[in-house]
Each structure stands twice: as C-alpha cells, then as structure tokens.
# Entry
Amino acid sequence: MSTKQSIGETQTQTAPAVTAHSQVDITQQTTTPTATTQCEKNVTDGKLVAERTKLAREQQKKALPEASIILASKVKATTAAPEQAPEPAPEPAPTTEGGEKNRSLSTTEWLMVGSIVVGLVGSYYKREELKVKAKAVFGEKKNA
# Structure
C-alpha cells in the first residue's frame, strides 16, 4: 500500500502474535487516515430541513395556548348543558328478505371448508381400515 490512500481505501493493522501468557488487545479498529467529506448539496439540504422543522415547532408552540382556550370553551359548553343529549339514531327496520345480500365466504372460511371436505374424503377411502382397527380395539375390551 502507498502512504497516501484514497478516501475509499482503508488501512489494516495486523495484531501481534499472541502467546499463551501475554494479553493483547485484538479489537483494533480499521480506520481511514483522512477524514471523509460530505457533499455540499446534502449539507445545505440538511440545513434547510432543520430550519423548516424549527419553524414548525415554533408555530406549534404559538398555537398551543389558542388550542387550550378552544378546548376549555368546548368542555364548558358540554358540561353546562348535559340535558340536551342528542337523540339516538333510529334503528332501521328489519328486512324480510333473508339478511345480507351477496355474502360470500372469506379465504379462511373456504380453507376450513376445504379441510373438512378433505378429512371426510380421506375417512371415506380409509373406512375399511378404520373398521378393522375399531373392531380390534373395541373387540379386545369386550372379551377382556
């Protein structure tokens, strides 16, 4: 390696040989010998963003007392007239057509139906084996 390195290259340092009785720091960090530079456009953009957030915070601080006054007046208005509760919305009349229209099953419900069908079909095809196993299990209990 040359003594002058570009920004992208790194300088590596090798750790000295470790013997059984010596303690050596093996956590040496690889660093670049020169400082990295930032793009000036990115720096100016970052400063603009910081300025905007600072202005937004100042506007929020200015609006906070006004908002608390508005909230306090609303709270006073609601506590002053509790007798004027709004009427509940009328319930719609029940239909005689049979409930919801065009309701289809969800994906999970279709998967449940499919698993039940597969289980029933599997039991149908294995019914002879199941009969033999049932006879063996229940037949032994009757004889014993």
Q: What stands out?
A: Residues 108-143 form one domain. The chain has a mean pLDDT of 76. The longest helix spans residues 40-80. Helices lie at 40-80, 107-125, 127-143.
